[in-house]
Amino acid sequence: MSILRLDGVRREIGDFVILDSVTAALARGQRVGLVGGNGAGKTTLLEIVAGREEADGGQVHTAKGLRLGLLTQEANLDRRFAQAPTVRAVVRSGAIEVERMERELTELEAGGAEAVQSAAYASLRERFEAADGYHLDQRVAESLGGLGIGTELWDHKPSELSGGEQTRVALARLLVADPDLLMLDEPTNHLDIAALEWLEMTLVKRDRALIVASHDRAFLDNVVERIWELRDRRLATFRGAYSAYLLQREAADARTRSVAGTTDAAIKREEELVQRYRSQRKHV
Could you tell me the pTM of the whole model? Predict the structure, then answer.
């Protein structure tokens, strides 16, 4: 069952068409690599899916209640992110629903034995446990450490970090949030080898959907199972990771060249026949 469906999505700025009749579907838990040349419209498509940018035509359909998360290349420009009290706090806030349940549990516990023994407390605690709430701080630490943010920075304000560090913190926040559909725009730009390997392992272990735009071929080979290619304002889908996509793309281009060559040859023969016919008519 699809959690995301694009039907004829179109985006244009003035007379310039960025996306034209883009159609695709994403299944629950599917991991997709979004590829294309610079300016092909990858970021625009992610922004449209996330609802941050309006399409000029077509429709975007999402499953009811779908939780989306998008990492942009300008994640550090988010004002609420920059104004957070600490790095640890901003990453923890990714699990906003878990934090809300945690506060409610604390309030009930402050109400004494009667509140703790209530059905409301039991139900809330059950939901908190199902959301892995008791391991939230552990997940925050794993995400920050895995992405190379040292413990000495965890109590700093996000605004005190470099741009690359802020992007990694924003990524850690999204991983802690664990949305149904995670969308990443060039997430490997500020990662060293250790952080890159940790991110690859983490994304593969997730059982939720992923769309990642990247120029890192090895990363795509290690993480995704399908490729969406933006080319000439249209989107084509390919099964397999990046290496498999390359073979399919080369084969498709070869067929196109073959057909074009056959067509050109046919046109040339037809023109020669017409010319020969005209020449013969002159001598009749």
Answer: 0.85
